[in-house]
Automatic annotation (TrEMBL):
Protein origin, superkingdom: Bacteria
Coiled-coil region: 104-131
Keyword Membrane: yes
Name of this chain's protein: Uncharacterized protein
TM helices/strands, residue ranges: 25-47
Upper lineage: Bacteria, Pseudomonadati, Pseudomonadota, Alphaproteobacteria, Sphingomonadales
């Protein structure tokens, strides 16, 4: 047996106490556990991570949820879609009618009147120009005073001003007719109608009022994560990121990403230069090339919540435990503090490699 009385023969006090065998076994077990724990903390590597939460968004602003507005004032006379309906680009969504059903006809009649006025004014201006020519001839022969010539020239200028004013009025009428003619609201691109916000024919809408919300289909998606400002100096484009999508079963081991289950890989695309309203910094994460594809819709939709871990440098488990107990920031490499530049590894469980980062972000 490994525990005999001769092992404690040199310890007179302990021998006199004669501790029971279970106590001696427990002591050896505790000693072995302490040695194993110290060895674990000193020798086992740990990948530091910067944790953040966020959501899935569309990379292209045109692919994000957008409002469909009324182009002209009036009332929604007819709806061509319902909530949740798929539409193609150019499909009809709603038709808006003016309170006056004869408005376009009256505008067209007013335009025809202006056309007649413009034609009559131009004809009168041609006659006035001929009068100017005759007056110039008579004035040159001394048969007409200069005042009559100036009056004829003024009349031509007056006719020109009337023609210009009438043309401007006609242009305004053309704009109004065109606006009133565009009473049909169409889908801007392929997508889905999320909800109808407009009322029925008894509800008035103004120009620019939101009548429906629309979301394009199959958008190029990225993830926006919000991370603590203490970690931002060590985050740069290309940093690997592990993602856990809402509703997708996954188990994440923060320090050992290689043994995580159900996680998806990404990489940092961009970091905001200023903090958001919540005091955190936004980090855009895109899908990592060559890695497993992110879940498609409808499994992960736009706006779904995401939890992410940005992979940092590899340290010992003991250092990481000490850092967490003291609430210290992530490890700053000595080279970054001494030279103002940062060269960091991509983290354990990844392809490794190095990346350069300016010292302005490592201060």
């Amino acid at each position: 047996m490994p525990f005999r009385d001769e092992h404690i023969v040199h310890f007179k006090t302990l021998q006199s106490l004669r501790p029971p065998r279970p106590a001696r076994v427990l002591g050896w077990m505790l000693l072995t556990a302490m040695i194993a724990a110290i060895a674990f903390l000193l020798l086992v590597p740990w990948v530091q991570t910067s944790t953040g939460t966020g959501s899935v968004i569309a990379l292209d602003p045109r692919d994000r949820v957008q409002n469909i507005t009324a182009l002209v004032p009036g009332r929604v006379e007819e709806w061509y879609v319902t909530d949740g309906e798929l539409v193609k680009k150019g499909d009809r969504i709603a038709r808006i009618a003016d309170n006056d059903p004869n408005l376009i006809a009256r505008l067209q009649a007013e335009r025809a009147q202006l056309d007649a006025e413009i034609a009559a004014t131009r004809q009168a201006m041609d006659v006035a120009r001929r009068d100017v020519g005759r007056m110039e001839q008579l004035y040159g022969e001394g048969l007409a005073p200069r005042r009559d010539l100036e009056l004829a020239q003024i009349k031509v200028a007056d006719y020109g001003a009337k023609v210009a004013k009438s043309l401007a009025d006609r242009n305004r009428l053309d704009i109004n007719i065109k606006r009133q003619s565009v009473q049909m609201v169409h889908a801007p691109r392929d997508g889905r109608i999320l909800r109808i916000l407009g009322g029925d024919s008894a509800t008035m809408v103004k120009e620019g009022d939101v009548i429906a919300t629309f979301a394009p289909e199959q958008a190029v998606r990225v993830v926006e994560l919000y991370v603590d400002g203490r970690d931002v100096p060590l985050i740069y484009p290309g940093r690997p990121v592990r993602l856990e999508f809402e509703g997708w079963p996954a188990i994440q081991f923060s320090g050992w990403p290689s043994v995580a289950v159900g996680m998806f890989d990404g990489q940092v695309r961009a970091i905001d230069v200023s903090a958001s309203a919540n005091g955190l910094f936004r980090v855009l994460v895109e899908q990592k090339p060559g890695a497993r594809s992110w879940p498609n819709e409808p499994f992960v939709r736009l706006g779904a919540k995401v939890r992410g871990w940005v992979m940092m440098d590899t340290v010992s488990s003991g250092y990481e435990l000490w850092r967490l107990l003291n609430d210290f920031p992530l490890q700053y490499p000595v080279s970054a503090l001494d030279t103002g530049t940062y060269t960091g590894s991509a983290g354990a469980g990844t392809s490794g490699g190095s990346a350069q980062k300016e010292g302005g972000n490592a201060k």
